[in-house]
Amino acid sequence: MRELRVETGHPYSVHIGPHAIGLLAERYQVLLAQADQMVVIADSRVAELHLDKLLAELEEFHPKVFQVPAGEKAKSAESFMDCHSFLLSENCSRNTVILAFGGGAVGDLAGFVASTFMRGVAFIQVPTTILAHDSAVGGKTAINHPLGKNMIGTFYQPQAVIYDSSFFGTLPDKEVRSGMAEVIKHAFISNERWLDELLAINDFGAMSETELSIHLEKGIAVKAAIVEEDEFEGGVRKFLNFGHTLAHAIEAHLGYGKLTHGEAVVLGMAYALELSDNARLIDFLKWAKANDYPLELLLDMPFEALLPYMKKDKKSTASALNFVLLGAVGQPYVEKVEEQQAQVAFRQLGITIKEMI
Q: What is the pLDDT of residue 357?
């Protein structure tokens, strides 16, 4: 079992390994026993597969369960209010503890619910996807708005992150691809040797659980270090958004849930590398093609349709598009990009991708 400490204003631990959920009734027994109620907010698809296993570990605490739609559909204003209605109908209080059980979407939703119910109650992240190694750590919570992704939310740190790697075995291929996108993002902004290791992987299914856990631990360590330096995204934390400006625009344009977040991030990172004139673009596109990321989608999307969403991105201003770009590996930076320059780079990336596929 691996453990990392996140030293924010409210410090907490991230536990990674098989059967990590056993720590809930061991390491966190006092916290849970002191709560008047425990509520599990669970992704409905994950609940079908793994809820019984979680509840078996929590039997002594008599948890109540509220299921929300699977994936990005959970991050709606309707789901947010439904969670609050459930908490109120169950007579929950400021001493209630919420557990987020599922992928990044339910973690974002449950964290936002926890931060706003009774002006804030304790919550624990119990992520079940590879992607959630990024979203479950750092305290960002949010729901989506039709005009933009993650536009309504808070910074609110969990009490702990319990990351049980035994859940990975049931992940569909697209969710593995989605999660590995955020892993390689962390490598791009931190460590070239690690990046080279990841770019050499042409079959995610060939990775062992141990190998995957090591990569996830490295990714969490990168994020934890950045969050500790800049908890509320006033500076270097923006680097974690490498690839996300275009990615969020694609997700909003297509409709949330039509493409996994990680698949969109891969397209966004390719675009950021093009804007950066970065020499690793071709290596990255070859890796993306080998691992079946949908590069061809960029060929069918007009830049003009994506531009309004990029203008609403939290990193942009009314007068310019702000992108996280990359010099050498491990040297991200934020730069303003004029619309015409952004459009030219988008077209050039399309040409490059068309030549490859």
A: 82
CB 246 within 8 A of CB 325: no
The CA-CA-CA angle for residues 141, 144, 146, to 5°, reads 165
Across 251-276, average pLDDT: 96
Per residue in 212-222, pLDDT (tens digit) is 999 999 999 99
Strands (E), the chain: 2-6, 12-17, 38-43, 64-68, 97-102, 122-127, 140-145, 148-155, 160-164, 321-326, 332-337
Dist. CA 250–CA 260, nearest whole Å: 10
User: Which residue type does 342 have?
Assistant: A
Look at residue 285 in the predicted model and tell me its pLDDT. Answer: 98
Q: pLDDT for 146-171, tens place per residue?
A: 988 999 999 999 999 999 999 999 99
Asked whether the CA dihedral 191, 197, 201, 206 is positive or negative, the reply is: negative
Phi/psi at 276 (nearest 5 deg)?
A: -80, -10
Q: How many residues does the chain have?
A: 357
- Cα separations (Å) of 45 from 48, 164, 194? 5, 17, 33
Percent above pLDDT 90 for the chain: 94
- Write the CA distances from 255 to 60, 134, 341, integer angstroms: 41, 22, 26
Q: Which residues are catalytic?
A: 119, 140, 182, 223, 233, 237, 241, 244, 248, 261
Instruction: Kindly write down the DSSP assignment for every residue of 230-243, as one continuous string.
Output: -TTSSSGGGGGGTT
| Distance, C-alpha 177 to centroid of its chain | 13
303-335 tens-digit pLDDT: 999 999 998 875 555 557 999 999 999 999 999
Could you tell me where the DSSP H helices lie in 38-191? Answer: 44-57, 77-89, 104-116, 132-135, 173-188
Strands 122-127 and 160-164: parallel
Q: Residue 38 to residues 31, 281, 336: CA-CA distances in angstroms? A: 10, 47, 46
The CA–CA distances, whole Å, from 70 to 41, 109, 268 equal 11, 11, 24
- Name residues whose C-beta falls within 8 Å of residue 284's C-beta, 6 or more positions apart in sequence: 184, 199, 269, 270, 273
Quick one: which of 10, 32, 253, 274 has its CA closest to 138?
A: 10
**Cβ distance 345 to 335 under 8 Å?**
no
